[in-house]
Each structure stands twice: as C-alpha cells, then as structure tokens.
Please model this.
Amino acid sequence: MLNDNIKVPMPTERIVIRKLKDIYYVYYRTRAYRNAKGQPTNDTVLIGKKDLESGMLIPNKKYYEIYDIKPMDTIESNEKAENELIPETILDYGNNYLLDHLLEKYDVNSTLKYAFPDLYKEIATLAKYMLCEGNVYYYCEDWCDKTHTGLPKSISSQKSSEICKSISLKQRTKFFKRWIYAREKEEYLAYDITSISSYSTGNDNVEWGYNRDEEALPQINMGMIFGESTKIPVYYNVYPGSIPDKSYLDYMLRDSEEIGLKYSKFVMDKGFFSEYNLKRLAKETLHFIVSVPNHHNIPKRLINENARMQYDSRNSLGSGKPYAKCATITDYGFRANVHVFFDTMKFHDESAILLNNIERREQALSTLTAKPSEPHVYDKYFIFKESKKAFSFERNTTAINNAIAGFGYFLILTTDFNLTSNEVLEIYRRKDVVEKCFDNLKNAIDMKRLRTHSTESSDGKMFIAFVSLILRSILENTIGEFNRKNNLTIEKVMKELSKIRVVHLSNGTSLLNPITKKQRMILENFGLTEEDILKSVISLKP
Model:
C-alpha cells in the first residue's frame, strides 16, 4: 500500500511514467538491452505514483530498495519540503570512483589529457561505460544519469557519435607514443590479429576475408601489441579485412617504428611465419620468438635429427613439462636458436585423432565397389588396387608411420640466445594474454560487432574500446585471484561497487550510504579504504 502522505522528490534518471485512467504510475528502468531483433528495449519496476499537485513521488517499498535508502519522514507540503534537508539526487558512485582511481594511478588519464586536452574526460567516461555496460552508446545517457561521472552533462547517443568522429589519427598516435612508457622496457611484446564483424557499408576497412569467428559477414582486422609482464595492452591498429595474417607484419613493424617501439622484443604464433617475415624481424627487432610450422623442410630436418629425444632424461624440462633440445641454425640468413620440444600428451592426442579418422575412412571405403572418383584428405594413407572386376585397398603403413613420427613435436625459433628452452616456452605460452584480451574485447566489452557506419566513427569507437580494455586488464591483473576465491567476475565487482551511492542534499552537501563488508574487501584489493572513498565525497559537486 502507498502512503499518500509521504512524498519524496521525483527522480530524474531512468524514469518512465505511464498513465492508467487518472493515475500516473512511475517506473524505474532496471536494464536496457537489445531484444532478439536488435531493437532497443528495457525492463522496468514500479516505484510509486506521481502526486499531481506537487509533482513529487509517492514512493512504494521498491523505491527504497532500489535507491538503498531508509523510508523518509512525511513531507506534507511543498512549503515544508523547501525547509527540509532532502536528497536532490541519489547516484551510483563506487564503480566510477574505483575506475577513476585506476585511470589516475596507471597514468591513463594523464596520457588521455596529453593527447585529447579538450575531450579526455568524455573519452574516459565512455570507456568506463563500455566496461560496465557494453558498447551500445544508445544507453550511455541513462548510465550517466544514474552515475556520478563528474561531467556537467550526461553524454547522449548523438554526443558519443560526435566524440568518436573527432578522435583523429594524429591524436591517437600522440596517445600511443606516450602510453608505450607504461610498459616495462625489457618485457616481451605479444602480437596477434583478430577480426571484428561489421554490418557497415561506409567503413573503408570493412572487407570480406578470413573471419576468425566463422561468421558470414565482412570484417575489419585488428592487430594488437600486449605487454607480457605488465599484462596491459600497449598498442593496436585496424587494417582492411581482406589482408592475410602473414602480411600484417609489415604494417606492425611500420607502426612500431612510428610510435617508438622499434628494436623491441616480440613474440608471435606460427600464423606470422614465413622466411620473408623472419628476415624482417631479425632486422627490425631487438629479439623475437615465433612458433615454427612442422611441415616446412627445415623443421622436418630438425625433428628428424632429434627423434627419440624423449628417451634421454637430460632433455626433460620437469614433471608435467615437455622434453626439449636446442639447435643453432643459419638457414634463414641469420643466426637463430630453434628449440625443439616433444610433448607426450600431444603425441598421444595427435596419434589418436589420426588413427580414428583413418578408421572412419576405412569404413566408408569398405562400402564402395569402385575406387572413389573424388579425392579425400585421408586417401594418402591407403594403397588402392583396381581391376576391371575388383576394387580393394589396404593401409599405407609407411605413410601412416611417417606421419606419426612427426607427432608430439613443436618448434619455437628465437634470436634471444640468453634464453633457456624453459624460458622460451614460458614466454611463448604467456602470449595467450592476447587471446584473452581479444575475448574480453569481443564479449566482456561487447565489441564482437562494429555497429558504426563510417570510418571515422569506427576508428574513434575502437580507440575508446582500447582504453576500456586497458581498464579491464588492470582490474583483472589486480583482483583476479580475489575474484576466483570469491566466485566473482569483473561484472559482479562493478555491479557491487555501483551500490555504493552518493546522496546530494538540498543544502549542497554530499553523503555516502553505508559501505558493506563485501564492498570494503573489494576496495582493499586495490589498496583503498572506506576512509579514502569518504574523503573523495567531500569534494564532490552535485
């Protein structure tokens, strides 16, 4: 039941008013999202009704739950309300407070201000919004309305588009030239490529090509450099969607020189392997590490030379680790170490897959009365005999044995002669942070689809997503273990901290609602205390 004698100021954010007969019901938008057809929609909760005489809200129980405040005293008239100390706004604060703290601590804010002196606050706000809510800027104004962002005005969907279009290549380059100093100079930089699908017809970089998400859509390709020790994104660039992986190295090396990363140390997977690329890397980098495909002639020779290495205990890297031997070569026109690894589990898995597939092909062949006219990938493992009256086949054991002989091996080439096989393997495996980073970009930050319709808007939005990715990486690096122990995610942490709300009172002062034990524990993981956040509230302006 509603008490018509209790009235509170009508909230101004996330409110929907619906008239039924002569009563105006007030609803709070709890969630904004796109439905199955991609159309904007939202969920609402009834929080009371509008008092037509005063324009104030007659609240129900849900109002107090949503705004996390105790029921207010009766406000009998407008005259009395003017004399009472009443809240003018109640805004989410803890999530924005933490993200602002990280932007300052890790020099992201100062770097943004250096490159975008007139827009750095808005860019930071959009990056925080993407981290908390995703990439659909249509709902950004709602988020700003309910969150204390420190901006004089909320960012509308139209304003966010204008901001994206104004982020120029020159400014982005200026940002990266300064941001690279956030990394450790001695760390290896992991480099990789991903594709991002798009419906856009006005973006010059959207083209058909190899789609890594197996979607029947054109795409842009994004190359990213990621610090292996700091676990923070260092640089990215966007390329046309039709260019194959091996060709990106020229772009990456060109960009690296432009922003000041020439003669750094890089690690990358076999997708970038070619003799041309190896020579470029040897010339343009301090050191590099790259996985080598087994089917090339030089790797085949090295596997041959190191066959049965697993039977010498001196080659073991330790319990649960592969065996390893190192060979120095000059076959590619420069001196390099190739670390040859043998993994027992990899050998058994690859052997099982091959033999299972051969058995399935064998069963299919047994149903035929003549040699198949269409070639099959596994027919090379059979010997076919055919005459006018009969057709038969048998396994080609020599071909099968030759294939199995190469299983279990993988090779990594490096020009860093100070590294042991163990260290090379550890550095190479750490490049998975880029894959994790791409996963966060596409799913956690909701950039699996690029919905902008011009090259300028797309470039600006990708940059803001990159800043958001920096924030998320810092969060995961800092609180990852705490989250695992407490069954939390970054999304749950942000949701929990958003419940730390600031109340702006009619006399111009600001108050913080009580902080829970769980919220204190989260803040402590970032070196923050309840006193820190209380001090920050004193300086706030409504």
Remarks:
- The two ends are 32 Å apart (CA to CA).
- The longest strand covers residues 23-34.
- Confidence is low (pLDDT under 50) at residues 72-83.
